[in-house]
Amino acid sequence: MRVVLAEDLFLLRDGLVRLLEAYGFEIAAAVESGPELTRALAELKPDVAVVDVRLPPTHTDEGLQCALRARRERPGLPVLVLSQHVEQLYARELLADGSGAVGYLLKDRVFDADQFVDAVRRVAAGGTAMDPQVIQQLLTRRAAGDRPLGRLTPREIEVLELMAQGRSNTAIAAQLVVTERAIAKHTSNIFAKLGLEVSDDDNRRVLAVLAYLDQGH
Amino acid sequence: MSMDTESGNGRTTAREVATTAARGLALALVSLPGAVLCFVLSAVSVALIPVGVGIVTTPWVLTGVRAFADRRRLLAARWGGVRIPRAYRPLPKDAGPWARTFGMLADPATWRDLRWLPVDMTAGFLTALLPAVLVLYPLEGLTIAAGLWRVLPDGYWYGFVPVTGQASALAAGALGAVLLASAPRLTPPLLRGHFRLARAVLGSPQGELAERVRVLTETRQVAVDASAAELRRIERDLHDGAQARLVAMGMDLGTVEMLLDKDPAKARELLAQARRSSADALAELRDLVRGIHPPVLAERGLGDAVRALALRMPLATEVTVDLDGRAEAPVESAAYFAVSELLANAVKHADADRIWIDLHHVAEGAGVLRVTVTDNGRGGAAVEPGSGLAGVERRLGTFDGVLAVSSPAGGPTMVTLEIPCALS
């Protein structure tokens, strides 16, 4: 699987290259600025891009903007955005086109190599990987002024959180140490309580959850 | 006091002209004897200083002169909209007559008062009288036309019209009518002219500057205190938080190095702990950075930073942004933290379930950034000493910003803040 990597800090870039190579990815390019990233994405056509939000030359949200532009030209281009901080505002912009294959994670998540690599693979396969912090914020916000979430059991909330991050039923079952059947039951309960359409497609499932969490604003 | 001479309502205009004329007349009647009295008393009192009597009387007389001038300052602001700054030097409370006399005489403001008195009794008297004349003189013209010309002696002139018979009397009446018609346009500027003259002589060119210096000194003190406290907080947070965690992590790693061969299971456990420590340290650093300068603010500017802030609110928050550029970083930062504080207030105290934030920039003049935060809570918010709002107000002061609160009991609460600035 070919990856284009954009990160301006040499140490982190080097670490990410080594990490991804160790897990069998092929690094098509590892660049350090916005214009380089745009060029690499257009020329190399990678399977997935791992992009830092803040990149030179502007040192603002250059990386995010490049990723969004590239996705407008090539809809569905898998992009995993890494950031020193996560903002719902940016998460929404990434999810806005509704075509999935996006991820938005705190840089800290690379500490857990297995989970990070899992997120890269998920995004490359057209799924989503949202940072638990984004989901947490959404959930607290919804819970404060909304009744349907109040009808969920604590276990269902837990499952909803993991589901919104983009995990499959198998992954959720593994994380919560229960059977996949139990998770399937929880998810159908959640969908029923929240009035969401049932779907087998992981990606559409996440978008449905996020759309629900987001609605009304 | 509105001086709307363009008013379409004839009665209002007539009343305004009459009021202005009456005010001018009153001013003229008071300023002439008042100024003469003050001037004579001051001159005599100062002249008597060598014989000792003046030492006692001068402070009294000069205080009276100041009261006379203050009265005019008040009327200038109330009737003419003219601000004449007051810039007397403060005298020590327990000063003796000697110190008071010479303290007052050493004050340039005293000499400005004394210089103003002769101006006020001459030019000031005339400028104050003119509005009244402008109203009364046309009345004379009209009465001449109405028949008064019959009893007037030969060679009587009304303005530039020699009154000799009915025809010329009618001409005088026409002139009076023209003058009367022009009165609404002329009287207010004439009265304002009187006050402008007073300001030119009485107002210290440094009065406004002195006031400005006082405000700047005060706000600088607030800014210095606030930034010192902020630095202490950052230092403490770094020292107790991230720094301590990194030290613990280093120690854990050292132990791991040693345990690697002897007890791999224990080493693995410590490695996991070290990784958790580094994640915690990062989380703390992130919070710290958000408290110093929020990343979205740096990346996107005030509009999106406030939008991101609204997304984190536990209640429905609507944001309207109308900014076509970015303000300077310190201004953006001040506005952001002010909004953040206002939102926290609304969530904590207002018992609201909706908040509206409106950000826009007024380009007129030097430009003003105006932010309005409205909630539908229970109201009753006030800028009281020690309250969060007072803190916001003080910190905005550093940027010449102001805060206005409208919060009747029962709500809604609307807080508006304005910071003069240009966008780029």
TrEMBL record, chain A:
SUPFAM superfamilies: C-terminal effector domain of the bipartite response regulators, CheY-like
HTH luxR-type domain sequence ranges: 145-216
InterPro entries from the UniProt entry: CheY-like_superfamily, NreC/VraR/RcsB-like_REC, Sig_transdc_resp-reg_C-effctor, Sig_transdc_resp-reg_receiver, Tscrpt_reg_LuxR_C, WalR-like
Pfam families xref list: GerE (PF00196), Response_reg (PF00072)
One of the GO biological process terms: phosphorelay signal transduction system
Gene Ontology molecular function terms on file: DNA binding
Annotated Response regulatory domain residues: 2-122
Alphabetically ordered keywords of this record: DNA-binding, Phosphoprotein, Transcription, Transcription regulation
In-chain residues carrying the UniProt-annotated modification 4-aspartylphosphate: D52
PANTHER family: TRANSCRIPTIONAL REGULATORY PROTEIN NARL-RELATED, TWO-COMPONENT RESPONSE REGULATOR
Protein name: DNA-binding response regulator
Organism: Streptomyces cadmiisoli
TrEMBL record, chain B:
GO cellular component, one term: membrane
Reaction(s) catalysed by this chain's protein: ATP + protein L-histidine = ADP + protein N-phospho-L-histidine
Keywords, comma-separated and alphabetical: ATP-binding, Kinase, Membrane, Nucleotide-binding, Phosphoprotein, Transferase, Transmembrane, Transmembrane helix, Two-component regulatory system
Class of this enzyme: transferase
CDD domains xrefs: HATPase_UhpB-NarQ-NarX-like
Residue ranges constituting the Histidine kinase/HSP90-like ATPase domain according to the UniProt record: 330-423
Domain of life of the organism encoding this protein: Bacteria
Keyword Magnesium recorded: no
One matching Pfam family: Sensor
UniProt cross-references to PANTHER family, sorted A to Z: NITRATE/NITRITE SENSOR PROTEIN NARX-RELATED, NITRATE_NITRITE SENSOR PROTEIN NARQ
Transmembrane segments: 21-42, 48-69, 116-137, 157-182
Protein name: histidine kinase
GO molecular-function terms, A-Z: ATP binding; phosphorelay sensor kinase activity; protein dimerization activity
EC numbers, comma separated: 2.7.13.3
